[in-house]
């Protein structure tokens, strides 16, 4: 069925709520409005306001109370309205949600899914286009994922909700309106922590996640016209990362370009570059390169096209690899 | 600071005065009318035992057997009185000083020191006693209690949830958010603030210029201030709040006025920030002495009973000491256990690397 990324998430949430009455949604404006991106559209009408709960305007409160509900056996799915609004909830996420299983010696789990629309590309105002994923990837106890397609949005939200560990679920907001065919009846084709090889190639590997996967694929298409065969990998899981799939590709191509829109300094690309260097040192033909956001607060909307990795910057990096 | 002139008028809710005389308060006395001689004696025993546990743990820290201990000395009545108002299926969310609450919830004394000895991050299994482990990020548990209480309400369970926190925590945003959520959801939660007058070195006046109980007003939550060193008064007001929660009445905020007689933790030196006169003032309002005097007045304190309680306390202290000293260091490889509830490749990789490192004979 052809559907948008946002509608695929909506169907995923609906199915999860149908399957398990302990799945409840909490967030700001997720009820009648259906969320500012309409991801929870009609769910309150169909499941009632005890299961789709419009909360007071307080992010720490949303995550903290959801955590309390999880302690009573619920599986809350929290919506943080925008990436830049998650920071007030940071303490609850990293001090409480992430660590409760460890702190209780395995006696207590916190099966929370924390949905966060992330990244830029929609011309939004400040605090509405951030990429805070690495704060969470750095925290033991959390799993961090980011789907890039409607099909993965559907399967990964269902997997995240059913997992007994807390999952920070990043949704690339500029892909909410992307349309694709989604098989709503099938089982997920990949475990939640696995990366996907999107296109096979031989000259270099381009790794991306979230909003930049489509950019990487566009770059690969242009490269193909120029006679270069790029292998594009969608990381999907940002913690843990699927090093095996990446290493297998780099063993074949000998070159790796990592793309993300988060600032490059101490970003996820640095971690991946280090691990690939360990695993593939003798297969690498060139240094691992990173293409990402600049190390600045997210710029005003009129400048974001310069900040976000585009096919040109990806191809420039590929050229540098290939020249090495 | 409370006035020294009159003991009787000092606190909003009081049922027993510092000299052991009862206060005529029909409204609140009715809430504890079932507290006959046997129950009074049980309260007394729990107060004495929990103080003994606290003294023993403090000594264990001084002797190097614990890395740290947060003494509850002086706050026994606030904890024992409120804990006695709870049913086993009610759920308590605590801070880190609620040793007496844990004891009254049924946590074996042998389990009270593991966290402070550094052999685990927890002391007991929360599921066994419906009480969370120590939470050192103050105030955050107010939200957890609110969420739990709301979930219990959705379940149709007629239970109450209680959140213990201190005066310092009332300045945290999480307590403010918890009050807002609880009011908005009419959640069956009791906010139990032990105002022990000090957040480490900061007097409560640094946190608030008005009585803490008034914070509830802005949220439309009933607030009650109680003499926290009066175990009967605390039992009475907590019973009312718990009953209110259980019957759909929504949240209540209780401010129990008490005093931390010792340091914040064994790493603290209260002589740097408070006067001996201040502590002495509160010594005369000791929660255990008060009920001892009440028992004496009412002919319930025969030597045989007093000796039995003292023996029980000593016996429990011995159990605590033996168990603490004998706690083995955890298996190093267990460091990687329970980071995740499900398989995680990074954990597997690092646990394997660490085991190999140990197998090579590495010594930390």
Automatic annotation (TrEMBL), chain A:
Pfam family membership, one: Transket_pyr
Record SMART domains: Transket_pyr (SM00861)
Protein name in the entry: 3-methyl-2-oxobutanoate dehydrogenase subunit beta
Keyword Membrane: no
Reported function: Component of the branched-chain alpha-ketoacid dehydrogenase (BCKADH) complex, that catalyzes the overall conversion of branched-chain alpha-ketoacids to acyl-CoA and CO(2).
Enzyme class: oxidoreductase
Keywords: Oxidoreductase, Thiamine pyrophosphate
Catalysed reactions listed for this entry: N(6)-[(R)-lipoyl]-L-lysyl-[protein] + 3-methyl-2-oxobutanoate + H(+) = N(6)-[(R)-S(8)-2-methylpropanoyldihydrolipoyl]-L-lysyl-[protein] + CO2
MF terms (GO), sorted A to Z: branched-chain 2-oxo acid dehydrogenase activity; magnesium ion binding
Lineage of producing organism: Bacteria, Bacillati, Actinomycetota, Actinomycetes, Mycobacteriales
Needed co-factor(s): thiamine diphosphate
Domain of life: Bacteria
EC number: 1.2.4.4
Coiled coil: none
Subunit field text: Heteromer of E1 alpha (BkdA) and beta (BkdB) subunits. Part of the BCKADH complex, consisting of multiple copies of BkdA/BkdB (E1), BkdC (E2) and Lpd (E3).
Residue stretches making up the Transketolase-like pyrimidine-binding domain: 3-178
Alphabetized Gene3D superfamilies for the sequence: 3.40.50.920, 3.40.50.970
PANTHER family linked to this entry: PYRUVATE DEHYDROGENASE E1 COMPONENT BETA SUBUNIT, PYRUVATE DEHYDROGENASE E1 COMPONENT SUBUNIT BETA
Organism: Nocardia mangyaensis
Classification via SUPFAM superfamilies: Thiamin diphosphate-binding fold (THDP-binding), TK C-terminal domain-like
Alphabetized InterPro entries for the sequence: THDP-binding, Transketo_C/PFOR_II, Transketolase-like_Pyr-bd, Transketolase_C
UniProtKB/TrEMBL annotation, chain B:
Dehydrogenase E1 component domain residues: 48-314
Keywords: Oxidoreductase, Pyruvate, Thiamine pyrophosphate
GO BP annotations, alphabetical order: branched-chain amino acid catabolic process
CDD domains listed in its UniProt record: TPP_E1_PDC_ADC_BCADC
Listed InterPro entries: Alpha-ketoacid_DH_E1_comp, DH_E1, PdhA/BkdA, THDP-binding
Pfam families noted in UniProt: E1_dh (PF00676)
Gene Ontology molecular function: magnesium ion binding; oxidoreductase activity, acting on the aldehyde or oxo group of donors, disulfide as acceptor
UniProt keyword Oxidoreductase, yes or no: yes
Required cofactor names: thiamine diphosphate
Protein name, entry field: Pyruvate dehydrogenase (Acetyl-transferring) E1 component subunit alpha
